[in-house]
Design brief:
The protein is mainly α and 192 residues long. It has six helices and two strands, in the order ααααββαα.
Length: 192
Amino acid sequence: MIPNHQKDITMTSTGSDLPQSVEREDLLALVADQRTNFLYTVADLTEEQARSRTTVSELTLGGLVKHLAQVQRGWLEVVDGTAPTKVEWSDLDPDGNRLTESESLAGAVDAFHAAAREFDRTVREEADLDRTVTLPEYPWSPPEPVTWTVRHVLMHVFREIAHHSGHADIVREALDGASTTARMAEAASRGE
C-alpha cells in the first residue's frame, strides 16, 4: 500500500562513485535478508496459528504474509508500468490483510516467494534506478501526482517488509513465545 503521508519525493543517488549495478545488488541483498528474517518468524506455523490474533489488532501471521506478497506485487506493477492510475475504496480487497477460508498459509508463502522473485527480476532488469515512476492515486493520496524513483520504491519495499516483520515478531511471541532472533542465530550457526 502507498502511505497516506506521501509527498512528491525523488530519491537520488548518494553522490558516490558506486555503480548502480553494485548499489542495486546491495539494496536487493538487504531486501532479501529482511524477507528471510520475516519468513523465520512465520516458520513452522499451523493453519490455526497463522489465523490467530494475539493482540488487540486484526493482525495475524498469515495475513501479514499475504499482505507482504501483495505489497511486493503492487510495487512491481508500479515499476513495470502496469499499476492502475487510480484505485478507489471499492477496488481494495477487504480480505487483503487476512487469510480467507479458501486460502492457506502455504499458498500465501508461495505467493510471497513468487512476488519476491518477480520484483527482484524487474529491479535487476531496470536500466536506471533514478528513473521516476508515477504512483497510483489512492483515496488517501494528495491531490497532485506523486512520483518516486525506482530506487525509492526498492527502499520502500524494504521498509514495508521491515515494518511488518516487527509486527510479526510481536504476534508470534504472543502466540507461542517463538523468537525470530533465536531462529536467525540457529540458521547462522548452520551457515545459512
